[in-house]
Amino acid sequence: MNPNLTPGTRERSLHYALLFCLVDVTLMGGAVYLSNSLALFSDLLKEATDLLSILAAFLTVRAVRRSPDHRFSYGIGKLENLVSLTIGLCLLASALWITWRSAHHLASPQMAQGTIPGICIFALYTFIGYRIYFQTSQVAREQPSAMMESQARLWFSKASFDATMGSALLVAHLFRHETWSWYLDPLASLIGVVFMLHAAWAMASSSVKDLLDATIEETTQLRILGQLVQHLDDYDRLHKVRTRRSGPRIYVEIFLQFDPSLLMGEVQKRIDKLQQSITEIIPGADISIRPCTQSPP
Residue 170 and residue 271: Cα distance in Å, rounded? Predict the structure, then answer.
C-alpha cells in the first residue's frame, strides 16, 4: 500500500472510467443503429449496465469518504460491498437476457450487416479497456478495496468481451457470404456471457466475504504477526488477533497480556510503539491494542 497516494486516487480512477463509458455507450449506440448484429446490440446492453455500475461506484466512493457520524461511527465502508453485489446482479441479469437472445438467433440465423463501425469500436476499446484494467488493478493493490477490486474485474471482463466480439464480427464480415459465418454473431455473444458471469461471481463472492466480516488476506496477517514478533519483549503473551475490512479501511484488534508489575503509563508507551510499527507497514489501518489477561471469546 502506497502512503503517498491521496484519498481521491480511487475517485479519479472511477471518474475517468465513467467518462470512457459515456463515450462508449454513445458510439456503440450509433453502431447498433447502423447494424442488425446481435453481438453489437448485446454489447450496447452490457455497456449500459457498466455505465450504471461505474456511476454507482463513483457516487459510493464519494459517500464513503465522508467522516463518520453518530449513526455510523465506523463509517459506511460496507456500502462499497453492497454496491458491488448490485453490480454483480446487474451483470447476471444482462447475461441471462443475452443468452435468451442468442438462443433465438442460433435457431434462426441471419447475416450480420453494417458491422464495420462496430468492429473498429471493438478494436479501439479493447486496447483502452485493458489499459484501464491495469491502472485500476494497480490502484487496488496500493489501496485495497472491494470496490476497486470489483472495478478491475469489471474492466478485464469488458476488454475481453470487446476483443471476443470484435474478432468474431471481423471473421463473420470476411466470410459473410458463407452460411456458417452467420452463427458467429450469436456464438460470440455467448462467449461474452461467460466473461460477464465470471465477473458477476467474482464481485459477489468477494463482497459477501467482507460483509460477513471475514478475516483479511493471509499476507497482511503475516505482516502483522511479524511486527508482533519483533516487539516480543514488550509484552508477556499474545492472546488473539482479529482483523476485518470495511470498504478501503482495515481494522485490527490485538489482545496482549503485559507484565502486571508495569505501570499503566509504561504499558501505554509500549502499545503506542507497537501501533506505530504496524501502521508503518499497513498505512491507514485502524489498530487497536487491548491489554487483557485472558483470550477474548
Answer: 64
Over the stretch 94-138, which tens digit does the pLDDT of each residue have?
888 888 888 888 888 777 778 888 888 888 888 888 888 888 888
Write out the residue limits of the CATH 3.30.70.1350 domain(s) in the chain: 218-291
With respect to CATH, is domain 218-291 assigned 3.30.70.1350? yes
**Encoded amino acid at 194, one letter:** V
CATH class of 9-211: mainly alpha
The boundaries of every CATH 1.20.1510.10 domain in the chain are 9-211
pLDDT digit string (tens) for 139-183?
Answer: 777 766 666 777 777 778 778 878 878 888 888 888 888 888 888
Closest CA to 254 of 219, 264, 277, 143: 277
pTM beyond 0.70, yes or no: no
